[in-house]
Amino acid sequence: MEEKIAFIFPGQGSQKVGMGKDFYQNFPEIRKYFDIVNEIISLDIKDICFNGPIETLSQTNITQPAILLISYITAQLIMNEGIHPEVVCGHSLGEYSALTIAGAFSFSDAIKIVKKRGQFMWEANQKSSGAMAAIIGLSPEEVERICKKFSGRFYPANFNSPKQVVISGAKNDLEKVTELFYNEGAKKVIPLSVTVASHTPLISDVGKKMKDELGNINIGDLEIPFLSAVNVEYIKKEKVKEILTKQITSPVLWLDCVKKMIKDGVNYFIEVGPKNILSRLIYRINPEVKTLNVEDIKTLERTIEELK
How far, in Å, are 27, 38, 51, 69, 82 from residue 32 at the CA level? Predict the structure, then answer.
């Protein structure tokens, strides 16, 4: 069977201390990208990525440029081996990584815009603390129904797999929401280490600010098809700014994106960046498709061996 490869890019929550270190030490050609990020965010991103602490790395204004950086250099190393995607897709922040690889953004513009995205989310958290939690064991429809009981306070934010939906909302309500979901049959309710009500109307101010920032960025032609998790459609150059503005307050339709890519013939998913969160989700959606993740030399070599 001929391979049809999708590169998939993770979002916030995939950061970990040590990410990118293996590549930095062994591939001198990617070190310049760390220098570019240092200049843009005025911090030593190499030191933070390699040595932490995780609390600093997890600050959203640092996490977002850091994950995009590591995803970008990882993709470059994979493609340098002759392995190229026929489609790219990202989870939340990962859409910026996917679009950069597709050609919509230059690397420096992508870092500048996600730095702003992280800054705006941090500012939103200062005004009103948010919370997110993964609901395990209930269908997307059940989660939507229960969230309606907290209308305007909690929303489905990430439709990740048939039995995992992340909800997002006001931190003050999390305890009551957790209790209700357990009463309704959830197997687990796992609070996430996120302090912003991402992908909800509660942070609509962030969406307005991002619209203004994106207005200052030049969008290049997309050389690789990009599937958006905002509307599960392949997006053309003219719609990129609109979709990234909507992304802030819209749920991540990851489950439907994976189903569509499989329907469109994708039979190899390569998760490009730290951890293997998306690979595990895809396995739960369809265990028959091949999933690989690349985050260090060992996993890079395994992927090359599998596909060449």
Answer: 11, 10, 19, 11, 21
Q: Which domains does the chain have, with CATH numbers?
A: 5-126+201-307 (3.40.366.10), 130-191 (3.30.70.250)
- Concerning whether 92 is annotated as a catalytic residue, the answer is yes
Q: Which of 14, 71, 92, 161 is catalytic?
A: 92
Cα-Cα end-to-end distance for the chain: 14
Phi, psi of 87 (to 5 degrees): -155, 150
Decide: 214 and 237 in contact? Cβ < 8 Å: no
- Provide the pLDDT for residue 199: 96
pLDDT for residue 202 is more than 80: yes
Q: Which pTM value belongs to this model?
A: 0.96
Asked if 42 is an active-site residue, the reply is no
Q: What residues contact residue 127 under an 8 Å CB cut-off, 6+ apart?
A: none
CB 85 within 8 A of CB 270: yes
**Cβ distance 88 to 80 under 8 Å?**
no
The one catalytic residue among 58, 161, 199, 250: 199
Our CA angle for 86, 250, 89, nearest 5°, is 10
Q: What is the pLDDT of residues 234-291, one digit of tens each?
A: 999 999 999 999 999 999 999 999 999 999 999 999 999 999 999 999 999 999 999 9
